[in-house]
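To the team - UCC complex, inputs and output below.
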Amino acid sequence: MSVYTALLNRSVAAGCSRVWGAAPRPLLHIRSASVAEPGTRRSDDEQLWEASSFLPFSRARIGSFFQETPVLKNPFLEDALLRGYLRRHLPQGAVLSDLCAFGERVAIEVDKWGRECEVNPPRLVHFDPWGRRVDHIVTSPAWKRMKDLSAQEGLVAIGYERSFGEWSRVYQMSKLYIFSPSAGLYTCPLAMTDGAAKVIQSIGVSWPVDEAFSRLTTRQSERFWTSGQWMTERQGGSDVATGTETVAVSQTDGSYKLHGFKWFTSATDADMTLTLARVQDRTGATTPGSRGLSLFYAEVSRDEDGRLKGIEVQRLKDKLGTRQVPTAELLLDGLPAHRISEEGRGVPCIANMLTITRIHNSISAAAAMRRVVQLARDYATRRTAFGKLLRDHPLHMQTLARMEVETHGAFLLSMDVCRLLGQEESGVATQLDTHLLRLLTPVVKLYTGKQAVAVVSEGLESFGGQGYIEDTGLPGLLRDAQVLSIWEGTTNVLSLDVLRCVARTSGMVLHAYFTHVKSLLAGVSSVSTLAPAVKAVDGALSQLQMFVQEAATREPGYLDLAARDLAYSLARIYAGALLIDHACWKEASASDTYAALRWCEQDLCPVVTKQARGCYDPSTPPLDSALVYDQPAQD
Ligand code: UCC
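Output:
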């Protein structure tokens, strides 16, 4: 008797067939094996075959249990906070029905395209079969469908049609929020396209960009263009003022040719781009620093031989995430371009683009959190462990609830910046609103970008090992989230941007901030369930005010060290006030109240906590440095 048959006999005797739910057939096999005719010897192979036909986990049999997969349902209908927010601020039936229909389309159709973009990433074809240089970036059919869909659904256009006045940006960004986690990163070209349209509109130049503006903001898919934003060169993407080497050589017709090397160009299959370069004078000299940078508009086109005009695509980047997006290194070798800013005003001009892309980034961050929470909570209704569904495990629910609180905060922060943008664009913003928008754009971008990584990572854990398996699509959420704190300004660069805008406005942005947070808290009754949250935000706000007053008297460098914690404090206090305000709305749910209370239990003002620990004292930088470069003791 083979070892397998022996094991099987023991198993049958122990009644394992019932446990495995095995059909009677295998039992017949084992009986026939044990009552073989005397003298007829069965080969080991035959015995093994019989045994394996009984085992539920052998050869073609892989067992009968399959875990149910998490199901993506209509992301609009599934999102109580989004729907509540819109019912409160933008209750027009047309908006709600458009978002509902789009949510259905995302769940049923678009999400699959997004997945296809991931598994069929772009590739670069340098040469045609006969050796001619062509530099074709080949993208998937799904990526192209995303472009058509973006035009038809008005994902950029809504922001410029302004059919809903000051709330048009909230409408547009709500749609992008629903789209983003299923978009296969098509939100990246859309962010830059929106940013380019904003720049063109702000500078008020017509030729040669009027046609471009109309194409960037059209709903007609055959006319729709996307734009690039080529800012990063080999010396880096943060210190644009020093890192930009590209030169612009003026031509007799008033146009320019650009020569340089762009090190990170996202969504390089774009139809046009905005980029920075230094205009050369007659001697070939350029002005260094920010004051030497001008903004240029260039179309990406091909000559009659099919070669890109003035561009060579060196290679596509091999990235941790955003693999759906073609990101390239480009040699600009006489790229025809038009200067669209005044000479030397390139950075302030492109700053408009950065405002828009940073807001898109915040929306994508909140959307990534929302998606992982939606999937995790669905999964918790399907997955049984230790005898009950995950949703019946209090610790698991506590973890999901904490993710939900973060998502609530990120959503309200991001939407509030969209609200302010919409007000500014429709001419109803007060000076206070404009200051708030300038301050909150980097604050919200940096905070939500960082939190998205944490929440999505936690979310993956709620699927156990399956969260780590590529073809579930879950790891891609984390890989794609990681970029949110890097591109469009890293956390530290944006923290310093916060200080810069405080300094440039002589503190007016902070005045606007304090005034607005107080107004959000003003209407809340002291006996309300929300009283502990109000007390926490109020207290943190006073602490922050004192910190700011005191920090202004400190030595240079003190605030730089505090910049990140200051930005976090600004974000947490502001989100706390927004959560309280939303929970006070007459149709708010009990969950809105609970989210506000939970949010406000955290350290809302880390800059004061860390200040009390001496974290920004002059002794800190050398200690930090010594810690980082700690050397092993000498023998
Ligand atoms: O390109 C990239 C990836 C593309 C993909 C995008 C997809 C996004 C998708 C999202 C959804 C999925 S990554 C590369 C991105 N690079 C950056 O973000 C740059 C980061 N660095 C900075 O932000 C720096 O702070 C700089 C470059 C702005 C600093 O330059 P300067 O020249 O040193 O800045 P200054 O001297 O502080 O400011 C120069 C002028 C001033 O105006 P004036 O001269 O009128 O006083 C500033 O007020 O620019 C103005 N300015 C701003 N205005 C500077 N920053 C801003 C701002 N944020 N908003 C308004």
